[in-house]
Design goal:
- This is ASCH domain-containing protein.
- It comes from Sandarakinorhabdus fusca.
- The chain is an alpha+beta fold.
- It folds into 2 domains: 124 residues, Archaeosine Trna-guanine Transglycosylase, Chain: A, domain 4 (Roll), CATH 2.30.130; 98 residues, At1g16640 B3 domain (Beta Barrel), CATH 2.40.330.10.
- Helices cover 19% and strands 31% of the residues.
- The strands form 3 sheets. It has a 6-stranded mixed beta sheet. The protein has a 5-stranded mixed beta sheet with strand order 7-13-14-9-10, with helices on one face. Strands 8-11-12 form a 3-stranded mixed beta sheet, with no helix packed on it.
Length: 259
């Protein structure tokens, strides 16, 4: 039987590969069990492997809340009208491939893709390899955050990091969040466009404006650039200045110009 690839969008596939999500939520159960490939939606790439070990009955709203550390879906999202993904597909032994493998996406494939033999061979050869350390991702439940990762040359604290500004940052209305990645909820980091947006966080700027935004995971910047631009217009930073990004509460952040 050919290896099948399960299509999963961001931010959920990153959470699975990071080990913070073990239930992939779907609208109905599946009879498939065993090894599967993990495909990042929209990329044409197999990025990991896992074992599909079980498919549980649909969860009640109460169970969704009690099992949030398994599926990682925020309460606000699962409570929306029209939400239908209440059925857990249980994934174990999720593993990131050291080198993503391209595959041919056949027309009409929405959930599963039956992979060609050469793709299966390329994936299988890597699944026995140690892919090395994954990119720095916050561990634990998706809504939780760990302390910041130590970064040479960057001052860090328990709930905040200093972020240096370049001239390009100031001109283009953004700042890079790579050094602050461990402060951010994993499911706040989305894809490169709004159709693949993550779940938003609340950002309060010291200039007085508060916005809801996710993170563009490709550029690692807040997607709401207009608010960043207005903040820069008010505080008038210069190249070489530093911002202080603080986590003030769960999914709440404050941005100020460091002294």
């Amino acid at each position: 039987m050919a290896l099948k690839g399960l299509i999963i969008r961001q931010p959920w596939i990153e959470m699975i590969l990071a080990g913070t999500k073990t239930w992939e939520m779907r609208s109905e159960r599946t009879a498939l069990r065993g090894p599967i490939a993990l495909i990042e939606k929209g990329t044409g790439l197999v990025v990991g492997t896992a074992i599909l070990s079980d498919s549980l009955p649909p969860l009640s709203p109460e169970d969704m809340g009690a099992c949030r550390t398994n599926h990682g879906i925020p309460a606000e999202m699962s409570g929306e009208v029209g939400f239908k993904w209440f059925t857990p597909w249980v994934l174990t032994e999720a593993r990131r491939l050291a080198q993503p493998v391209p595959y041919v996406h056949r027309s009409g494939a929405v959930i599963w893709v039956e992979l060609d033999a050469d793709v299966e061979m390329a994936v299988g050869s890597q699944s026995q390899m140690d892919p090395g350390p994954a990119p720095p991702i916050a561990k634990g439940p998706p809504a939780a955050v760990a302390g910041p990762l130590p970064t040479p040359g960057v001052s860090t604290g328990i709930v905040g990091v200093h972020i240096p500004l370049t001239g390009g940052n100031i001109r283009n209305g953004h700042f890079y969040l790579r050094v602050a990645r461990s402060l951010l909820p994993v499911n706040a980091i989305g894809g490169s466009n709004k159709s693949a947006a993550g779940w938003p966080v609340t950002v309060n700027f010291a200039s007085g404006e508060t916005v809801e935004t996710d993170v563009d995971g490709e550029k690692m910047i807040f997607r709401e650039r207009a608010a960043v631009r207005r903040f820069f217009e008010r505080v008038k930073p210069r190249e070489g200045d530093r911002l202080l990004l603080e986590r003030t509460a769960e999914r709440h952040f404050r941005v100020s110009l460091a002294a």
